[in-house]
Design brief:
Radius of gyration of chain A: 23 Å
Oligomer: homodimer
Shape of chain A: globular
Number of helices of chain A: 18
Strand content of chain A: 5-15%
Structural class of chain A: alpha/beta
Mean pLDDT of chain A: 95
Helix content of chain A: 40-55%
Low-confidence stretches of chain A: none
Chain lengths: 430, 430
């Protein structure tokens, strides 16, 4: 059984960078030798009275018929796996399947832990925040960004959110991220969020931008530990040739001992399973290494202290989905639908008045951002679109408006742009 | 849209006790006016481009066939509700159904909020800890207790766990809890956990003990704010006549302005749905009151910062289960099975050597605790049972061993007690 000094030593020995990044909570966390631990030890005995699950006495769930009748083949074939507690770290079969699903063929040798299963991607972010953020820790976030990073890292952990303006004249600038790392006090560890394809921008770096970013971060890691959180929520949704769709994680892993990428991804968008809440968290340490086991012990402790265990029902659904013949084709079909919407939106924007509709560079994901004409406030535009144009969009504050074209029909995108154009025109002439 | 000063003022005006109990995080939390907020405002427009869900463009999910084929009638009739995001506070229909399911007929007038949906009961506990616990806050926990309270309140929030020994000579003493509240520094707010039927003890107070506890807490609230967390995980599992099975929450609500009960319960044990992770958190404020809205705003913020939203798939399963005709009979059948195991265990214990097998008082729930003979350590006994008797039980440290009879067949309980008896006898004679 590991002890605090052991798990912390395993991390210090293998990764002084992670050791420097640990929060007070992260340092104290360690999976306790209590009930799930003791239950895991008793899994194979003939009389198992360890765990408070209501079973038939042989490890099978005493499910209500009113439950199992709703569930179709999931209940017929996998009732126990769907309705009993999941292991805290996640279903072992799902962890293996997801790792295989996400490992690019060229990265076979790269050392990565088995993904830990979380409650959607948000909990994976939240666990990393718990592990590595105390009050004042700098968290660099390319801006504009998903507002919930503020709640996860800033509000809950007291970290200091540092927005990094990556848009200059409506174009993406990779160097802004590297410069922001350099501008932090010398030697100070930083957390950096890399969300590509991004929410809200819908942008993924080109080959040259990727190289600039990756090589810049490798050099920056000479000066400080960097935890690079690759938030791959929109993984695979890239709609332009020549824009790499592979996660940045695989370009960063193993490049520098002080550059620690972690990979966060999930079934939410990749398998169109928003309500199932299945996310994954992968660390850049070889499977079964002492440091991987130590990090997992800490994460399991934090997971147990916040949600108990991940959702068995959803995990079993994901396992069966990943095993279904032809599922890759179905995923490709969804991507094609989104690709058609992407191109349709591009065309509608190209046809609109360029003084009114000024898109920020976008090439991937689910969103596009408009940079509103000078003098218009995005929140006022949002409310006006809601009140007078029967149209819902998201205001990001300032001059940015986000369009989620992933949830609009291809044939309605022209209307969407027309309505926004009319609204902006009306507001400018008032 | 509420603002910090508004939500905090609503709490201060309606409940100075809760105001005194708020943690720094609880005070800062407020549901932000970002994407879910803006999406909620746009629910009824004809062109909704607010939210990053992959839909058919009319609000229906673009589900993979590989997913929907697993799900039977849940997919046939409720695909969108099961697979799109849940509202952060939970499915409105489920919240209403669960409130009705749990409200005793006599408590119709008691003011209680609609339950917020959480990731199992653990997240409900964790949200209350976030809301009300800073470093050093006293959290009184009747002992022996479920070890995970330490992780949730102590490790994550830095609260000071105060174990309250409620067992004297293997009998439950309600007054110990009241005395522990009085022994805290005068005026200092306290958090108190009331878990009945309890884990690990499997005990619920008798009518007289309940009266002593409730009246004692009402008097103690004269001297300080008390947040009384009713952890009703094992609700309804009471196996002795004359032991009330109704939650203590309903006896505490509305009794004293400084005595704030919160109710935590869930589908986990009540509907035998361990892996679905559906819990509920209810506050003692009238539905739709300003203070209920303010508390919900804070809880939704904390929920969004940790898990995003609760599990839509599991919530829909619970809704459909609760609506199935005859489900109450099915639940009663499960309770009868556990009741038979309870009586069978009682009989086996009565037939065993009373010097070796000394059960602590138990009458409900899923567990029984043995007080081991002097000189035997529970962890050593656990390991010996595992190694030599093919039997898994849980050691609670010291002299206490927990038996989860909820997961052992009725006809095996005699063998369980025989094996423990043999093991103890062997260890004592060494």
């Amino acid at each position: 059984m590991p002890t605090h000094s052991n798990v912390n030593r395993a991390i210090r020995d293998a990764s002084p960078a992670l050791d420097a990044l640990l929060s007070e909570l992260g340092r104290a966390a360690e999976y306790p030798p209590d009930i799930p631990f003791q239950a895991a030890q008793a899994r194979s005995v003939s009389l198992n009275a360890t765990i408070g699950q209501i079973t038939d006495g042989s490890g099978g769930i005493l499910a209500l018929k009113a439950v199992s009748e709703q569930l179709g083949s999931l209940a017929d074939r996998h009732l126990d796996a769907a309705l009993l507690y999941s292991p805290v770290e996640g279903d072992p079969e799902l962890r293996r399947l997801w790792a295989r699903h996400h490992r690019p063929s060229g990265a076979a040798g790269a050392g990565s832990s088995l993904p830990l299963v979380t409650i959607g991607l948000t909990e994976a972010l939240s666990l990393v925040a718990d592990l590595c953020c105390d009050r004042g820790r700098a968290v660099l976030v390319p801006a504009p960004f998903w507002g919930n990073y503020r709640q996860i890292f800033g509000l809950r952990r007291g970290a200091s959110i540092v927005p990094v303006e990556v848009i200059r004249e409506r174009r993406f600038e990779a160097r802004a991220i590297v410069e922001a790392v350099h501008s932090q006090p010398e030697g100070e560890p930083v957390v950096l969020i890399l969300n590509f394809p991004s929410n809200p921008l819908g942008y993924s770096p080109t080959v040259d931008e990727r190289t600039e970013l990756v090589e810049g971060l490798v050099r920056a890691a000479e000066a400080r530990p960097i935890l690079a959180i690759c938030d791959d929520a929109y993984s695979g949704l890239v709609f332009e040739d020549g824009v790499p769709s592979e996660s940045l994680y695989w370009s960063l892993v193993g490049r520098h001992p002080s550059l620690l990428p972690v990979k966060i991804d999930g079934a939410t968008k990749e398998l169109v399973l928003f309500g199932a809440r299945v996310g994954f968290l992968t660390f850049p340490f070889p499977r079964d290494s002492a440091v991987a086991i130590a990090v997992e012990s800490k994460l399991k402790c934090l997971l147990r202290a916040s949600v108990g265990s991940p959702v068995a029902l959803s995990q079993r659904l994901v396992v069966e989905t990943l095993r279904t013949p032809g599922v890759e084709d179905e995923v490709a079909t969804v991507r094609e639908i989104l690709g058609r919407r992407y191109r349709c939106l591009k065309e509608a924007l190209a046809a609109a008045d360029p003084r009114l509709l000024r898109p920020v560079a976008f090439n991937s994901g689910c969103f596009a951002v408009l940079d509103l004409p000078d003098g218009l406030d995005s929140e006022k535009v949002r409310r006006r679109l809601l009140a007078d144009y029967d149209t819902g969009v998201v205001s990001l504050g300032g001059s940015y408006l986000r369009l989620a074209y992933c949830s609009v029909k291809e044939e309605s995108l022209g209307t969407l742009i027309e309505r926004i154009e009319s609204c902006l025109s009306a507001m400018l002439s008032e």
